[in-house]
Amino acid sequence: FDATPFASDISVPVSYVLTLRDRLVPPHKQRALADATNAHVIELDGDHFVSLEQLGDFAAATRQAVDFVTAQFAQQ
Q1: Would the CA dihedral through 44, 48, 51, 54 be positive or negative?
Q2: pLDDT tens-digit map of 7-49
Q3: Rounded to an integer, what distance in angstroms lies between the CA atom of residue 33 and that of residue 14?
Q4: Is the CB of residue 55 less than 8 Å from the CB of residue 25?
């Protein structure tokens, strides 16, 4: 599935956790989606299943992503 063609239609703040060593969804494709949404990118040094293999790192990156979006909405 590739949401890039319509991702630019998203009009709310977006944050993206990009997995730098992902072998399932290559980082350049993730970057294209993040760019299409003008997302705040949080890079995570891990593979596609980082959420299972590096729980603490994934949780911290997800927290960062949520905090960023929350702050953006608070400024509106």
Answers
A1: negative
A2: 999 999 999 999 999 999 999 999 999 999 999 999 999 999 9
A3: 11
A4: no
